[in-house]
Amino acid sequence: MTDNALNTSRSQEIFGAAQEIMPGGVSSPVRAFKSVGGQPIVFDRVKGAYAWDVDGNRYIDYVGSWGPAICGHTHPEVIAALHETLEKGTSFGAPCELENTLAQMVIEAVPSIEMVRFVNSGTEACMAVLRLMRAFTGREKVIKFEGCYHGHADMFLVKAGSGVATLGLPDSPGVPRSTTANTLTAPYNDLEAVKELFAENPDAISGVILEPVVGNAGFITPEPGFLEGLRELTKENGALLVFDEVMTGFRISYGGAQERFGVTPDLTTMGKVIGGGLPVGAYGGKAEIMEMVAPAGPMYQAGTLSGNPLAMTAGIKTLELLKQDGAYERLEATTKRLLDGLLECAKDAGIPITGSSIGGMFGFYLCEGPVTNFEQAKSTDTEFFGKLHNKMLEKGVYLAPSAFEAGFTSLAHSDADIDATLQAFSECFYEIK
Ligand code: KE4
Fold this sequence. Notes:
Layout: H1 9-21, E1 43-47, E2 50-53, E3 58-61, H2 76-86, H3 97-109, E4 115-119, H4 122-137, E5 141-145, H5 162-166, H6 177-180, E6 183-186, H7 191-200, E7 205-210, H8 226-236, E8 240-244, H9 256-261, E9 267-270, E10 281-285, H10 287-290, H11 309-323, H12 327-348, E11 354-358, E12 361-365, H13 374-377, H14 382-394, E13 397-398, E14 407-408, H15 415-432
Parallel strand pairs: 3-13, 5-6, 5-7, 7-8, 8-9
Antiparallel strand pairs: 1-2, 2-3, 4-10, 9-10, 11-12, 12-14
Helix pairs in contact: 2-11, 3-11, 12-15, 14-15
This protein binds ligand KE4.
Residues 28, 30, 66, 121-123, 126, 149-151, 162-163, 211, 215-216, 244, 246-247, 271, 281, 405 line the site of ligand KE4.
C-alpha cells in the first residue's frame, strides 16, 4: 500500500453543505468523525467489502454500515430479491407473509425466541423490551452496564457507550432525572455489583439488560461465569435477563451470543443483520412474556413501517446466505486472521495494544490491557487512534471513526483484503510512533 494524501475535495464540499442543513452534517453522531478529527468521507457507493467515496477513492470497509453488511455490501442475491419485491410494493401497513417467513427464521435460530415482534431500529426494540420487562414484572427499575449502548431512548442514556462515549456526553441534556432514576448501572463483568443492586432494591428491579459481547465501548467479552451468573441472579430475584443482540445477533454465530455462550435469556433484542441493510429491529422471547404485547395483550407498541415487505425481503435473503454451510467458519477465520495480524504488527512496532475477535466482530485498545470493563477501556490512547484512523483512510482502509466502537468483517472480505489491511496497519504504526 503506498501512502498518498487523499483527494477528498468533493467529500469536503458535500459535508460542508450538509453541516448547514443537518445538525453536525450527519444523520447519526458517530459518523461525524468528531473523536478522530479530519473530515468524514462521503460515500458514493458500496459493493462487497468495499466502499467508494464521491472522489472515487476505494476503501476496504470494516464498518459495513455498523453491522448489516455481513454478507458484503449489495450482495447480488439480496439485490435480486429486493427488485422482485419492489414490483409488488414497498410497504403495505397490513399483514404480509414475508413477516411470517422472517419471524420463523428468527425463532428457529435464536434459543430464547418463541415469539417475535418487528420494529424499525435497535432503539425501538430496546425501548419496547424495557416496557415489556416492566409490564411483565410490574417493577420499574432496570440494571444496565457502563459502556453498553441500547439505542438513544431516554432511559438508556445513562453511562452509555457508542456515540455517547465517543462524544464524551456524560448524560444527554433533555433526559429528565425522573426517567433515569429507575436506571441502575454496574461495571461490566462485575457480578458482585449486580448482587448489591438487587440487595439494595428488593422486588423493584424488572431485569438486567446487557450486550452479551460489548461492541459499543470498543470490544469487551464476558468473563467466564459472568453471563451464567447473571442468569442465576435474575432467576433468584424474580427478574428478567435480556440480551441486547442488536449487534451480536447473527454476527457472532447464527444463534447469536446466547447460542455461542450457551446462556439463554428471557428476552432478546435484535437489529442490523436481520434487516440486511434495510431498517429492521426486533424483540422476542418466551411466548408467555410476548403474549403481553398488544393486540395480544395490554402492552402497547406500534410502528407504521414495521415488518414492511422490502425490509423483510432483505432480512430473509441475508439470513439464508448466512445459513449456508461454512459461512460462520469463514467469517471467524477472516476476523481472527485480521486481529491476530493486527496485534502482531503493533507489537512489532512497540505499540501497546490489546484486542480480540468473535465471529464477524473485533476490537482493539491502544493500551496494555486487559480491558474487562468501560473504565479500563477509557485508558486506550484515543489520540493515537485518531492519527491511526486518518492514516488508514489514506491507505484505503475504512475503520469505525471512534476508539469506542467494534469493527466488522463480512463474507466478502478476501485474504488479499486482510493482507492489504495488515500491511497498512504496519506502515501506520511505524509512521505514527
Ligand atoms: P439503532 O437504533 O441504531 O438501529 O440500534 C441501537 C443499538 C442498540 N443496541 C446495540 C447493542 C447497538 O449496537 C445499537 C446501535 N449501534 C450503533 C453502533 N455502535 C449504531 C451506529 C450509530 O449510532 O450510528
